[in-house]
Amino acid sequence: MSKKLLLKDAHIEGIRYLETYRKQGGYTAAEKALKMTPDEILEEVKTSGLRGRGGAGFPTGMKWSFLAKPEGVPRHLVVNADESEPGTFKDRYLMEFLPHLLIEGMLISSYCLGSNVSYIYIRGEYSWIPDILEEAIDEAKAAGFLGKNILGTGFDCEIYVQRGGGAYICGEETALLESLEGKRGNPRLKPPFPAVKGLWERPTVVNNVESIAAIVPIIDITGAEYAKIGVGRSTGTKLISACGNINKPGVYEIDMTITVEEFIYSDEYCGGIPNGKKLKACIPGGSSVPIVPANLLLKTVNGEPRYMNYESLADGGFATGTMMGSGGFIVLDEDQCIVEHTMTLARFYHHESCGQCTPCREGTGWMHKILKKIEKGEGKMEDIDLLWDIQRKIEGNTICPLGDAAAWPVAAAIRHFRDEFEWHVKNPELCLTQNYGLANY
Ligand code: L3W
Ligand code: SF4
């Protein structure tokens, strides 16, 4: 059984409220941290090996150490709660059931980074969660964990919740900052990174909800103990939101030593595939990461078991591996149509493109059109090569990673399931009978 650090108290009734959270030892990590120096906290975070849980897996301690500290210029912590990646709903779970874990993590992180005003930017569709967060913020403030002179240390910190307007692109950190500044959420060119020039051109750390929540157990048990959990550079625990063709969809905390097979089939996690169907493929890190067929999902190319961690999922590189990404684990059984699935994703990325870069703005639209044509049984063999060519022209040629995120699912689908694309071209009459409701796509 995986060790639980973040969700260990999630089942306790009333844990959303300060009184119950305190009874479970809540805010003792903050009390400990506020007696440490910011540099000592930073060392603990570095030692823990924590990697950003939003998708990129960038080392959190390294990001924090990049934060510029010019004299007299305020710095900010911004929590990215714009969880819009299809298949990803772990941050929603954390904020809904354990809001104080996030607030406590933000207090420790804000103290370490010197942020007196910190923000939670939350996706607009999570309409009921800002009230939960604001209630927790009010409770923390009334108890002296936020506001002025926190716990008599002289450190001041306010936390504000800002709702997004429902655009996926605002989960990209620089688009998020633009939106937080009240502008249209268009991504900025990097560098400069937010750590140097972020919110209102001030040094800013942008971290995912889960990353900041993980700061609490890191301080609690120490970075060295946290680093002992997991394997290699995949330290600590990771939240996985599991969905698709599985018996037990939900949010699971894993310690990154279990195999993909165990995660899908064991009763502790997904509980297998309904109706005894066979596994066809999986997208383990949210819709942006490459889809992997069952044979490569359960084993690597070298015949090693594939594990639920950053290194093992990527084993074999882009051609055969995939990515841990945001931990949005989407399972497809043998009845799922890969062309339809890829078309649905292409439609999503086209709709969500901000339109600044030509390869992304135009390419996502073209990919969607061609996929729809193939799915309807109107495609030609050349369309499959054209699709391949378009995704190649998008990848690496755009301002932000949305372009890559749109290209990778198409590339991986053609690479691993070209026969299905060809089947659609060769069997147009079957495509039309099998695909109902396509007009909506
Ligand atoms: C200072 C440097 N800071 C890098 C920072 C950078 C950022 C972090 C990671 O995209 C991925 C994307 C999605 N000095 C720095 C530096 N940083 N070098 O480190 O940066 P990066 O560019 O590797 O990634 P990113 O732009 O943050 C995130 C993938 O995640 N993804 C997305 C999921 C989306 C959600 C959601 O909806 N909320 O989870 C899933 O796989 O495709 O590749 O902070 O500033 N020299
Ligand atoms: Fe906008 Fe797409 Fe360019 Fe990102 S890659 S800046 S979403 S057009």
Notes on the structure:
The chain has 441 residues and is of the alpha/beta class. 44% of the residues lie in helices and 12% in strands. The protein has helices at 18-23, 28-33, 38-48, 60-65, 90-97, 99-113, 129-142, 173-180, 209-221, 223-228, 260-265, 294-298, 310-314, 317-320, 338-352, 358-375, 381-394, 402-426, 428-434; strands at 76-81, 117-122, 158-163, 204-208, 230-231, 234-235, 238-244, 250-254, 279-283, 292-293, 328-333. Strands 8-7-11-9-10 form a 5-stranded mixed β-sheet. α7 (129-142) links the parallel β2 (117-122) and β3 (158-163). α15 (338-352) packs antiparallel against α16 (358-375) and α17 runs antiparallel to α18. The two termini are 41 Å apart. The model has no long low-confidence stretch (mean pLDDT 96). The structure holds ligand L3W and iron/sulfur cluster (SF4). Ligand L3W is lined by residues 52, 54-56, 58, 63, 66, 82-85, 88, 171-173, 193-195, 206, 285-286, 288-289, 323, 325-326, 401, 405. The site of ligand L3W has 28 residues, from loops.
